[in-house]
Amino acid sequence: MSKMEHSEERKNIRNSSIQIKLPLFIALALVAGVLIGANTFSPSTNNPQDTAKSYLKFRDILSYIDRDYVDTVDVEALTDHAITEMLEKLDPHTSYIPAKDMAMARSYLEGDFEGIGVEFNIFKDTIYVITPLSGGPSEAAGLLSGDKIIKVDGETVAGTGITNEGVFKRLRGKKGSKVNISVMRGSNSKLLPFTIQRDKIPTVSVDVSYMVGDKTGYIKVSRFSANTFEEFKQALIGLKKKGMNQLILDLRGNPGGYMDHATRMADEFLAGNKLLVYTDGKGTRYDSKSFARTKGDFENGALIILLDEGSASASEIVAGAIQDNDRGLIVGRRSFGKGLVQMPIPLNDGSELRLTISRYYTPSGRSIQKSYKNGTEEYAKDMLNRLESGEYFHPDSSLFVDSLKYKTEKGRIVYGGGGIMPDVFVPRDTTEFSEYLSQLYNKNVMREYALAYYKNNQKQLEKMSFAQFKKSFDVTDKMLKDMVALAGKSDVAYNAEQFNRSKNLIRNNLKAFIARSVYGNAGFFPVLHESDEEFQAALKQFGRAQKLAKGGV
């Protein structure tokens, strides 16, 4: 949700090359676009003489170093470093996984392990939380995107040369075991302590589905994992049974996953054999086209897809297919722009090369992949650059040029430039934000207060149906006063002007967190959406979406 995710933006983060290339995840391998299966080795036929000459040169240099260099050298580590630096010259998603990391990499694909449930990366020798996984223990504890993990069980892990393997050894563990971590949040130099109880990481990817009124359905998909399509299909059928005839599909913050689940999802909305996505590589070897093939459960009816800058890869395949076939309306902000296809190639020592072999294109011919011509480090700072350029608050006019102009099936103008450009732009809403609110988020005050309130009023709350709660439960001034007192104990100094500016949003968030304790996500999201500008904007666009559904433009 844009309001809750806006608390602090990361600043001046520079990725080291190997960590940009190897974002191994505690909870899930996001393998969007990876082709399962790989080729056995065969020499290049494009430029065999130069390839052979370069290979011999590298072999000779490595042999001289191993035999004659003044100090003892770890030749394998040197080779791994050289490979990583070489791949740096290609694209941001071609990567090399050393043999020692392969067992961990496979475990993410299988999803059968236990830990704290965060996606992380290492920047400038510091562990950054990319996102706490939905429904996992880190999300429940209150970790936020952008948090820097400084200590684990009292051990300083920042500035110590921590590796991916080192992170896993410290944060993974048996279900029920606990780990104490200290994080730095935003510009606050004081460390925030968290005790997280490890658990089996949930593989559920449909966070919630519910009816908004009598005819509008809502489904939030957080990632495209092994069971996503089945979960989505079940949610879709369930909403139809409740009378849904128009749908909001929320893909905000969805980083992608398996391509086939994305195309099957898009197929549920498109009749006939419409083109969904195609790939184009060197020559024709890795070219492919995916078409709608089955009769879907929602081929008619107004459709709106919510996107933002965190929507990537498989999310962009779905949105591109829907937009280019004039099937539905895209609402939100420009998506991430990840449209390179990797093929995993096992190497003879147990390591793996994930080589980019083609690009994704939407049916109109737009490349999903954003530019990486300025290098990997600049590519990694794209989200920060969008913030600084103001793109989160108004569309980037530099992308609306003739060379990036394409047409949908019925002639609507859409634009390329990387990612999916929305039909209806919704800026991030900052009108109710304040530094005081940011500190409440940073110190986890609202979650803590909501949990305590639930425990003290559990019997009374659990007697209420969610419909009763949503209609009649109010966050009173007394509750706000108690929360402010709790904030003071957490070193959040009261600021009357900022509190009043954020007061309505604080009320909404407190009610949503209390609802989550009582009803789970089925209570949390409907309450939160009452103050979600993007969600509210989508509800107002069903007239346009209905026109598209009926064949208009």
Automatic annotation (TrEMBL):
Keyword Transmembrane helix: yes
Signal sequence annotation: none
Family annotation (InterPro entries): ClpP/crotonase-like_dom_sf, PDZ, PDZ_sf, Peptidase_S41A, Tail-specific_protease
Membrane-spanning segments: 20-41
Highest rank taxon of the organism: Bacteria
Residue ranges of domain PDZ in the record: 101-172
PROSITE patterns: PDZ
Entry keyword annotation includes Repressor: no
Sequence similarity: Belongs to the peptidase S41A family.
NCBIfam families for the chain: prc
Protein name: S41 family peptidase
